[in-house]
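Saturday, quiet lab. Running sequence design on the structure tokens for the scaffold JK sent over.
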């Protein structure tokens, strides 16, 4: 059921960086971060503690092997995780500070959760009901925020819940998340994913599901585990466990209060149409005890969609295009795009197009505008330059120039030398990886 293996496990040994890992990473990544001990590792990623050399702040850096995610067809999950995490701003969601890349690695620079995984705390014994309530309130606050922004996590479990230095909850790992534009014409999601013990029965039915309702189910399983110290649906035989999940067969331990028992029954309802919603959870008496609501106005600009003009690129787009050791986007061949080069500019799309048109006129080339770009061609179309412009931030755009025929020489000899002033040159040193 899981689309990819865990990218963060519990710490190994004394947490020191093994020799192989030390060879992979320079001690001073991009001269910005001082890398420390290994926190965990998985099939295609490793997570390190690091210190921001500018501020002294502790951060977590997830190093992802590009080759392994490409072989495993996992690029879509990494891309989605970047798109989602770069926009989520909530006190109970791990913050993504920035994304960096070298030729072989992608680096997520994230908020450091000093308290580690919630899973490790549960392994030592069940929680009191008040502590269960505290963490469940924080979890629901984060989930409600995600849902209000059209994000469905789809893999909520204690291993994906971290604790900060104040022992407050932080949701992480959005690699299996879905967004509203993945919903099909029937109004449902259809991708099978999640972790077996936490997966909702409607996912097992393979008939489509509501992303919000499956997150509620997983939250219910987490609450049960916090209270009981073990899973509500568990069996050494996977199919037997799935049958229990599908029927909603579970029993609360004897120490469970009547109110919590009733609440869990409403959450772990195998029928998604009658299962309690996040809105109903927020007004439940058991949940509401001592609850302090976190106000989070909906960001109207927070939309996951393709823009017809000047599409906003995310960091993964740059990583995908980049052939080199940084994301500065300076002139250079763009990986497997043999006949294409890219650069980042702080000029407006109109200004950039105007410059290309002026040069084309000097060279006697034909010009045709194409959306946020322009096509330049020579006599009888013997050579062509295609210019595409995509919005990166409010201030920056990415310009891609594709060449065919003798357009390659024309670009190199005539256009490129006269457009260097358009290139944005940020303060980002190259890495040696």
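Result came back. Writing it out in full:
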């Amino acid at each position: 059921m899981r689309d990819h293996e865990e990218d963060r496990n519990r710490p190994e040994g004394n947490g020191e960086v093994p020799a192989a890992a030390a060879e992979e990473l320079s001690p001073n990544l991009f001269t910005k971060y001082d890398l420390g001990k290994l926190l965990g590792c998985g099939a295609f990623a490793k997570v390190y503690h690091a210190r921001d050399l500018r501020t002294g702040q502790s951060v977590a850096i997830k190093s992802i092997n590009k080759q392994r995610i490409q072989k495993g067809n996992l690029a879509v999950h990494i891309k989605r995780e970047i798109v989602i995490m770069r926009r989520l701003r909530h006190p109970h969601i791990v913050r993504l500070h920035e994304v960096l890349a070298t030729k072989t690695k992608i680096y997520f620079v994230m908020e450091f959760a000093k308290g580690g995984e919630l899973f490790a705390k549960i392994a030592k014994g069940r929680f009191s009901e008040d502590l269960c309530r505290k963490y469940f309130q924080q979890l629901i606050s984060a989930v409600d925020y995600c849902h209000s922004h059209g994000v469905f996590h789809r893999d909520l479990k204690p291993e994906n819940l971290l604790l900060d230095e104040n022992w407050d909850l932080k949701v992480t790992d959005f690699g299996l998340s879905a967004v509203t534009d993945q919903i099909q014409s029937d109004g449902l999601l259809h991708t099978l994913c999640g972790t077996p013990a936490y997966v909702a029965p409607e996912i097992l039915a393979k008939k489509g599901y509501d992303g919000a309702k499956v997150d509620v189910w997983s939250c219910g399983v987490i609450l049960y585990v916090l209270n009981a110290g073990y899973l509500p649906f568990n069996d050494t035989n996977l199919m037997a466990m799935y049958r229990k999940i599908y029927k909603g067969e579970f029993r609360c331990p004897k120490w469970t209060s009547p109110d919590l028992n009733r609440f869990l029954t409403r959450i772990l309802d195998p029928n998604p149409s009658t299962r309690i919603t996040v809105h109903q959870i927020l007004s439940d008496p058991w949940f509401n005890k001592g609850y302090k609501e976190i106000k989070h106005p909906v960001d109207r600009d927070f939309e996951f969609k393709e823009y017809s003009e000047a599409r906003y690129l995310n960091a993964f787009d740059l990583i995908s295009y980049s052939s080199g050791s940084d994301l500065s986007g300076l002139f250079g061949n763009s990986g497997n795009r043999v006949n294409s080069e890219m650069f980042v500019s702080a000029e407006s799309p109109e200004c950039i197009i105007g410059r290309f048109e002026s040069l084309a006129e000097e060279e006697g080339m034909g010009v045709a505008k194409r959306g946020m770009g322009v096509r330049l061609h020579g006599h009888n179309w013997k050579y062509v330059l295609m210019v595409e412009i995509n919005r990166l931030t409010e201030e920056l755009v990415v310009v891609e120039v594709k060449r065919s025929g003798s357009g390659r020489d024309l670009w190199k000899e005539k256009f490129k030398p006269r457009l260097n002033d358009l290139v944005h040159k940020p303060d980002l040193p190259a890495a040696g990886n």
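Notes for JK: Residues 1-23, 179-193, 300-338, 427-433 have pLDDT under 50 and may be disordered. The longest strand covers residues 33-41. Ask whether to fix the surface positions before the next round.
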